[in-house]
């Protein structure tokens, strides 16, 4: 808001006329007073002289959305304002699933809520379910209509009903919001192709290759195998359209203020439908600047701060999660640094943690892991990480040459080793994965595969080898122990709680056949879920029981509040990762053995942090650290606090 007191008084008087209830007016004006300066500062930074008119437009959108917000969601807003660290609590547990693969439809999901609640889920991310383009649609990330649900999954009313069922159970509904692009079938793109000048300005369309070629000199390729380049000729539009991802996904022109206004309206509409967390997809790519890779530009953070401020004014129960799979030095800006400190996204993916988990598992060496974590800048204490063992996407080996060098490794050689190891090509590997998007120019090979298959369970079961099976189960539980014990929101990918294996049937589905990421997107096996409970001695039963135990322990461990960060401390054994958390209730030290070997670990390394006596919360056992060594069994995890 403008800083003139007389103007503020005049504006407040005008806005009050829009309310029938003085309490509602007070609430809206207080929030506007709190977040308005952040909003106007960001608008000014990005849009300059166009900012005042845009602010007027946004005020109208926010007033309309505030009046339309249901009473129960307004109550949730007030509860969240009194509990601002709700996303940081140790009891938070995310579950990520495709609606159709988990339960068929949104109504089917409602019938499975007891399963999720029994598991301890408090955060349900249903993968892209807004109306995509027909046919090939990048797994739903080519959205044709942000205000409609895929017809085979249900309706927007079904989505609202699901959200209403989740709220009393303490479960937040999470949805993807694709910011960088829309499907070419979206109404905006259709109008642009039809010659509507207003909507043509929503996109980047060039009459010849002059400007695209200038950009291409510094642009990487996201999908070099099946979507090379970043521009696509469209005959109907009569120009080259910017298409970073696939030819049918048109990049939006965020330098146009109308695009921001459209997304404010979309966010508030979905928030009023009960969406509590928005996963901001492809956020790093939103702003284009010649001579750069067009990622992580400063305007992105101003835009996100503006979107967040609008959400805070109307629906403060809503949180943002940045899907920014970028280097740590760039990632921290999505949580907010400098003038944006803590004002951008409330949560971001800790992609590096996931990459280092698999790197350490293959190498049996945690020195690269520890070094990479040390290089991470500290996050704002009001924000949180989203940690995961696996997700719906491939694994890209985001290991920098600098981190590798500090660990005594050659970065390119190590990335090559990991691709060989997890594609099953390296001698002695336990993993079964598939190479995704080989780039011959860079040698980059990403990996597809479920957690269980990459951790060795598929190969062990095929070999009917109980020892190898036991190792695979231990590996999986170790990986989950690290994510659950890191501090933040652990995100459990559907089926990992049952150790689901690779699903090779994807190749028989025409729209999936060219994209082997569907190998790790199997359908939920409800018979296996029942069997895991009935037969806890099976491999999937052991994983399920072990994971449930870790979740229960985590829920009662205050040391895992996400305002505190895990930091690596020196370990005398390269196989063992030590992570320390300095919580007001005392020190927590986690120890993880990333090898199949029994490690006799010097007790002094633990005693320096915890004193002579400690308690392992996972096994509920006491440790006397006054002796010479502590024994760490293969793939053992310890969550130790002072006793």
Structural topology:
Layout (H helix, E strand, L loop, with lengths): L4 H12 L5 H26 L3 H18 L2 H12 L11 E4 L1 H5 L2 H5 L2 H7 L3 E4 L3 E3 L10 E7 L6 H11 L5 E7 L2 E3 L3 H7 L3 H4 L4 E2 L3 H7 L14 E4 L4 E4 L6 E3 L5 H16 L4 E5 L16 H17 L4 E4 L5 H4 L15 E3 L1 H13 L3 H8 L9 E4 L13 H6 L4 H12 L11 E6 L4 E5 L2 H4 L2 H6 L3 H19 L4 E5 L32 H9 L4 H17 L11 E2 L7 E8 L2 E8 L5 E4 L1 H7 L2 E4 L4 E4 L4 E4 L4 E6 L1
Helix pairs in contact: 2-3, 2-13, 3-12, 3-13, 12-13, 15-16, 15-21, 21-23, 22-23
| Estimated share of beta-strand residues | 15-25%
- DSSP helical segment count: 24
Report the sheet with the most strands, covering strand number, pairing sense and barrel closure. Answer: 8 strands, parallel, barrel
General form = globular
Radius of gyration, Cα only, in angstroms? 25 Å
Helix content: 25-40%
Q: Can you give the mean pLDDT?
A: 95
The main sheet orders its strands as 1-2-5-11-12-13-14-17
Number of strands: 25
What's the end-to-end separation, in Å?
Answer: 52 Å
Q: What is the SS-derived class?
A: alpha/beta
Low-confidence stretches: none
Structure description:
This protein has 643 residues and is an alpha/beta fold. The protein contains 24 helices and 25 strands. An 8-stranded parallel beta barrel has the order 1-2-5-11-12-13-14-17. The chain has a 6-stranded antiparallel β-sheet with strand order 18-19-20-25-22-23. The chain has a 3-stranded antiparallel β-sheet with strand order 7-9-8, with helices on one face. Strand 8 (231-234) and strand 9 (239-242) form a beta hairpin. Helix 2 (22-47) runs antiparallel to helix 13.
């Amino acid at each position: 808001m403008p800083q003139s007191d007389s103007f503020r008084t005049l504006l407040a008087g005008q806005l009050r006329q829009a309310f029938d209830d003085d309490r509602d007016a007070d609430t809206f004006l207080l929030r506007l007073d709190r977040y308005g300066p952040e909003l106007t500062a960001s608008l000014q930074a990005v849009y300059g002289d166009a900012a005042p008119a845009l602010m007027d437009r946004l005020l109208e959108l926010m007033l309309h959305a505030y009046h339309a917000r249901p009473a129960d969601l307004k109550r949730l807003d007030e509860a969240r304002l009194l509990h601002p660290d709700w996303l940081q609590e140790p009891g938070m547990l995310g579950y990520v699933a495709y609606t159709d693969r988990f339960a068929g439809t949104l109504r089917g999901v409602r019938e499975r809520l007891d399963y999720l609640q029994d598991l301890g889920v408090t955060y349900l991310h249903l993968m892209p379910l807004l109306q995509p383009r027909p046919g090939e649609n990048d797994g739903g990330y080519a959205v044709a209509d942000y205000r409609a649900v895929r017809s085979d999954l249900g309706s927007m009313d079904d989505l609202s009903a699901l959200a209403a069922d989740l709220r009393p159970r303490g479960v937040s509904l999470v949805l993807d919001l694709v910011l960088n692009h829309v499907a070419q079938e979206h109404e905006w793109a259709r109008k642009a192709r039809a010659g509507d000048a207003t909507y043509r300005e929503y996109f980047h369309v060039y009459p010849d290759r002059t400007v695209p070629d200038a950009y291409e000199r510094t642009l990487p390729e996201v999908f070099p195998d099946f979507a090379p380049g970043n521009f696509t000729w469209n005959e109907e539009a009569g120009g080259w359209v910017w298409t970073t991802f696939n030819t049918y996904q048109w990049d939006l022109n965020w330098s146009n203020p109308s695009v921001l206004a459209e997304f404010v309206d979309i966010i508030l509409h979905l928030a009023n439908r009960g969406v509590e967390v928005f996963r901001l997809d492809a956020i790093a790519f939103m702003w284009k600047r010649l001579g750069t890779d067009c990622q992580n530009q400063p305007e992105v953070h101003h835009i996100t701060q503006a979107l967040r401020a609008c959400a805070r004014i109307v629906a403060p129960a809503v949180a943002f999660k940045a899907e920014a799979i970028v280097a740590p030095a760039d990632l921290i800006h999505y949580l907010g640094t400098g003038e944006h400190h803590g004002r951008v996204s409330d949560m971001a993916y800790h992609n590096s943690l996931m990459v280092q988990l698999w790197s350490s598992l293959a190498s049996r060496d945690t020195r690269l892991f520890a070094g990479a974590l040390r290089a991470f800048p500290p996050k704002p204490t009001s924000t949180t990480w989203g940690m995961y063992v696996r997700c719906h996407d491939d694994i890209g080996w985001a290991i920098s040459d600098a981190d590798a060098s500090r660990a005594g490794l050659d970065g390119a050689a190590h990335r090559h080793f990991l691709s060989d190891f997890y594609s099953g090509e390296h001698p002695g590997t336990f993993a079964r994965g598939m190479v995704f998007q080989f780039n011959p120019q860079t040698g980059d090979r990403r990996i597809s595969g479920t957690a269980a298959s990459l951790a060795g369970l598929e190969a062990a079961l095929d070999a009917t080898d109980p020892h190898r099976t036991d190792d695979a189960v231990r590996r999986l539980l170790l990986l989950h122990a690290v994510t659950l014990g890191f501090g933040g929101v652990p995100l459990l990918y559907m089926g990992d709680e049952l150790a689901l294996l690779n699903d090779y049937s994807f190749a028989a589905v025409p729209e999936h056949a060219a994209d082997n990421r569907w190998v790790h997107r199997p359908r939920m096996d409800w018979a296996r879920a029942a069997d895991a409970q009935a037969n806890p001695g099976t491999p999937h039963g052991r994983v399920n029981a072990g994971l449930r135990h870790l979740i229960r322990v985590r829920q009662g461990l205050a040391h895992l509040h996400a305002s505190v960060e895990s930091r690596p401390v020196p370990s005398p054994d390269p196989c063992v990762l030590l992570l320390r958390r300095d919580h007001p209730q005392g020190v927590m030290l986690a120890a993880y053995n990333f090898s199949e070997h029994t490690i006799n670990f010097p007790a002094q390394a633990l005693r320096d942090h915890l004193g002579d006596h400690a308690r392992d919360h996972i096994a509920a056992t006491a440790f006397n650290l006054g002796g010479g060594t502590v024994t760490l069994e293969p793939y053992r995890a310890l969550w130790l606090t002072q006793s």
